[in-house]
Specification:
Strand content: over 45%
Number of strands: 5
Largest sheet: 5 strands, antiparallel
Protein name: Cold-shock protein
Number of domains: 1
GO molecular function: nucleic acid binding
Radius of gyration: 11 Å
Organism: Candidatus Nomurabacteria bacterium RIFCSPHIGHO2_01_FULL_42_16
CATH superfamily: Nucleic acid-binding proteins
GO cellular component, one term: cytoplasm
Subcellular location: Cytoplasm
Number of helices: 0
CATH topology: OB fold (Dihydrolipoamide Acetyltransferase, E2P)
Structural class: mainly beta
Length: 66
């Protein structure tokens, strides 16, 4: 899937991705980043990812810059 980095939480190891056609943003943790670091990402960057299901609901995994 493709999405856009919507929020990067300063000082925290996570952020949120907005997906076209979806109203709820998708959580991602820096441990799910592939070939990019959290410091290299910016709000507005387009990323690819897979949707996983965790205890707290869906999340983005295998996140990489598109």
């Amino acid at each position: 899937m493709k999405g856009t980095i919507k929020t990067l939480v300063v000082g925290k190891p996570f952020g949120f991705i907005s997906r076209e056609g979806e109203t709820k943003d998708l959580f991602f943790h820096e441990s799910e980043l592939k070939s990019v670091t959290l410091d290299e990402l910016k709000v507005g960057d387009v990323v690819t990812f897979e949707v996983g299901q965790g205890d707290k609901g869906p999340f983005a995994q295998n996140v990489s810059r598109a």
